[in-house]
Design a protein that fits this description.
The structure is a single chain. It is built from 8 helices and 7 strands. Strands 3-2-1-4-5-7-6 form a 7-stranded mixed sheet, sandwiched between helices. The chain has helices at 10-19, 24-33, 45-57, 72-78, 94-106, 120-123, 143-153, 172-187; strands spanning 62-66, 86-91, 113-117, 131-136, 154-163, 191-196, 202-207. It has a single domain (24-30, 38-207), classed as Rossmann fold, CATH 3.40.50. Strand 1 (62-66), helix 4 (72-78) and strand 2 (86-91) form a beta-alpha-beta unit. It has 208 residues and is an alpha/beta fold.
Length: 208
């Protein structure tokens, strides 16, 4: 036990990266995206592996992803779906949605994933409750609305994960919005939430 936080040094980070069990389709996607100007938007293996664990731990029958980009996190989560499990991916950008669909098809997950191409707030009201897990990684200023939607859609005992809550990749105003979101999630009466220093920070919430 320890009351101090161990810093992730470059050496420790290298060790964590070396032992990460990265699925083949995810590894190939990282190779394909190497040097791309948007490569930094891909899900880091630390978070990808955590999402895969959480999908399996919550049953893996219904998963909701808000913000799909090229499909990195969807590939991680699809690898842990239960037989007959399904992911609904919400992506506003048609070009990113097309790339994600191609990557998921190449990995053999085209039957387990549906990509809804529209602003998430247009799609969320039509979805039925009962998701085991929801993952939020989309436009940051809309995180509070996404959290409210996920609180309705995720079943009691299910999990909601939101990425980038430290706001390190944006300006001070965006960082303030994201940290305010994290504080709101922690205080939310309908869920039990912790903040974890995974990547750029995540909230991990269990719906009461």
């Amino acid at each position: 036990m320890s009351v101090t936080r161990t810093p992730v040094t470059p050496a420790l980070a290298a060790w964590m990266d070396a032992i990460a069990p990265i699925p083949g389709p995810v590894r190939r996607l990282h190779e394909d995206m190497a040097g791309d100007e948007q490569e930094h938007m891909m899900t880091h293996p630390d978070l990808g592996a955590l999402l895969a664990v959480l999908v399996r731990a919550t049953g893996g029958h219904r998963v909701l992803e808000i913000g799909t980009f090229v499909g990195t996190s969807a590939l991680w989560m699809a690898s842990s779906l239960a037989p007959g499990g399904h992911i609904d991916c919400l992506e506003a950008d048609p070009a990113s949605a097309d790339r994600a669909a191609a990557n998921l098809r190449a990995a053999g997950y085209h039957d387990q994933v549906t990509i809804h191409v529209a602003p998430a707030l247009d799609t969320l009201p039509a979805l039925a409750p009962g998701y085991d897990l929801a993952y939020i990684d989309a436009d940051k200023t809309t995180y509070p609305a996404y959290l409210d939607a996920c609180a309705r859609l995720v079943r009691p005992g299910g999990v909601i994960v939101a990425d980038n809550v430290f706001g390190a990749g944006g300006d001070d105003a965006q960082a303030a919005v994201l940290r305010g979101f994290a504080e709101r999630a922690v205080a939310h009466s309908g869920m039990l939430t912790t903040v974890l220093p995974v990547g750029d920070g995540i909230t991990l919430s269990i719906v009461r």
